[in-house]
Design brief:
single chain, about 240 residues, alpha+beta, 3-stranded antiparallel sheet, 8 helices
Length: about 240
């Protein structure tokens, strides 16, 4: 009977080394199939616990050495308003990659197109084997600025990649004003909020989006975001007024 076998020392004493599994296999010789299955499952769980512990310990050290992510790129929306954002490769990846690598971390993205747009996930993994995924909600293609269909998809993916990686690491990028001083906190989803306001099909839809977004911008005390939202609302008013003529 499996219950009569003392299996705990076999799995609990295993170190996570390249040859550890072969050592375990050698120790299992002569055991009944039920016992082998139980020990292998215990070993699998033990390795997973070790990997999670290594991930958490490395993350704690990483947090102490995390570089500041600053939004240096200016987006000018046809002269109506502008805002700064952190460009994926220049402001985010180039700053994070060396530090992540030094602490044993890496990342990759997965994409899942659907009828609502694009669903993207950022998988943060560690050399010891543990990984965690941060999923972003479906996002519509970014058609602003006269982008073609391919450019719209690329812009959306870049946006989702940037935010999913920052979310996975718990980083909030900082704004920079013209004097290089850190200013307003970032308002996640500002571009999407502006698009939903400008493209609303009714006053009620526009007003609801505007009020929700403006409330969040006010909470963050982000004047840039509030100006952008007001400009999007004015665009909607002008468009609907012109269409009514």
């Amino acid at each position: 009977m499996v219950a009569q076998l003392d299996l705990q020392p076999v799995a609990a004493q295993m170190d996570k080394k390249p040859d550890a599994f072969m050592v375990l296999v050698d120790k299992l010789k002569g055991m009944p199939p039920e016992a082998i299955s139980s020990v292998l499952e215990s070993y699998k769980q033990f390795i997973a616990i070790q990997a999670k512990q290594a991930f958490d310990e490395a993350m704690a050290l990483l947090k102490k050495n995390m570089p500041a992510i600053v939004k240096s790129k200016l987006a000018d929306m046809n002269g109506k308003y502008s805002y700064h954002y952190a460009e994926l490769h220049k402001d985010v990846c180039s700053k994070l990659d060396p530090v992540l690598e030094a602490h044993g971390f890496g990342y990759r993205w997965t994409t899942h197109p659907n009828e609502k747009g694009v669903t993207l996930g950022c998988i943060l993994y560690h050399v010891q084997g543990h990984q965690e995924e941060t999923l972003m909600p479906p996002a519509p293609h970014d058609n602003s600025g006269g982008k073609n269909s391919i450019q719209a998809i690329g812009s959306t993916l870049s946006y989702l990649q940037r935010y999913s990686l920052l979310m996975a690491l718990g980083i909030a990028p900082k704004n920079v004003d013209t004097d290089g001083v850190i200013a307003d906190p970032e308002m996640p989803g500002l571009e999407d909020w502006c698009t939903s306001i400008r493209d609303a099909h009714s006053f009620e839809e526009m007003d609801q989006s505007f009020r929700q977004a403006f409330s969040e911008a006010s909470r963050l005390k982000n004047k840039t975001a509030k100006d952008a939202l007001a400009a999007a609302r004015d665009d909607w008013r002008k468009r609907t007024k012109a269409g009514a003529r």
